[in-house]
Specification:
The complex is a heterodimer of chains A (171) and B (125). Chain A has one domain: Arp2/3 complex 21 kDa subunit ARPC3 (Orthogonal Bundle), CATH 1.10.1760. Helix content of chain A is 76%, strand content 0%. Chain A has 171 residues and is mostly helical. Chain B has one domain: N-utilization substance G protein NusG, insert domain (mini-chromosome maintenance (MCM) complex, domain 2, Sandwich), CATH 2.60.320. Chain B is an alpha+beta fold. In chain B, 31% of the residues are buried. Chain B is globular. In chain B, 26% of the residues lie in helices and 34% in strands. The chains are: A mainly alpha (171), B alpha+beta (125).
Amino acid sequence: MPSSAKYSLQTLTRLSVLLAGAIALRLIESAFAYLLPLPGAHLGLANCVTIIVLYMYTTGQAALFLTARILLVGLLFTGLLTPGFTIGLGGALFSFIFMALAVKHNWFSAWGIGLLGAFCHNCGQIMVAAYLMSTAAIFSYLPFLLLLGIPTGLFTGFLAKIFLDRFAQIQ
Amino acid sequence: MRKTDYLLLVVICLVALAGYLFFHSTDNKTAKLLIIQHDNKVIERVDLEKVTAETRLDVPVQDGTLTLMYDKKGAWVESSPCPEKLCIHQGKITRAGQTIACLPEKVLLTLTTPGKEAEFDAIIR
């Protein structure tokens, strides 16, 4: 655990509010998941909050934020270490690594970060699923997931951009 | 959006297209073989050409019984004890190369062609 001295009260409070928001969004989107055409697909609204945190805080703080989110969502909804949890974890880690790199080096705008996050999340998920099932047959889903990830990724990136722009205005 | 964003968009489209062509290039008309696996072991191989009527198959799994159905054209999961029922929502698979996976119950249905079966065996280890 990082010492509390590294986090100002303001940072800690803001991260906590964002965390609560991310968990609430995750709950809402899993309630609407049945509307999407592919099994296991979801909008990735929680990822939108990860993007916001990556832009506003350091990579280390964002990593702490993501760890807390994954554990809490696991405890609250999916259950820890179930196949669904492990697959989601693979996706989340994979997309976090690449999004963190891309934000740090300023490769894309928020739109691109959303796209990249969705793309890497799908790849990571499928890789973990293929490992769990020990079959490569599952990769045949990937093209559909990737195509679906384009609108959802752009959408989350767009939402993150609105938030960041507005937040910069109030600051 | 920036230039690099569009570039990423194009790259993702290309990857998806390449993946689609790679996995779905199998000829639709050739005889289809349904392979049913549970816990990484092949439990049933069905030549769908020889199937005349809808057939039911009960697979005993961890949480109860998973019921799947197949006919001349394809296969689907009728009922499953798993919590999310994603396998049921996937509906019917009808083309070689398609799969239905029920991760919690470790059941995997794959449609393949007799020619590609050897390749399939190599993949599943």
